[in-house]
Write a structure and sequence with these properties.
Helix content is 63%, strand content 0%. The chain has 4 helices and no strands. The radius of gyration is 12 Å and the shape is globular.
Length: 70
Amino acid sequence: AEELIKMYGAERMVFGSDFPMSSPEKVLKTLLSFKLSDSEKELILYKNAEKILKYKTSENTAAKTHAAVL
């Protein structure tokens, strides 16, 4: 997965856990272990989904999520 992110770019990826086949916690830990910048991780974890869904999280919610995950 890390190679695909580097090949195609974080702006083309959206986080998914393949639940119930995989544990969301396990998949998240794997993503966070990749050698990506915080901004690339933010794109994959929520910013790309916001663009697709035309939804904007509040800055407060985004900050809390960022601090808890990264």
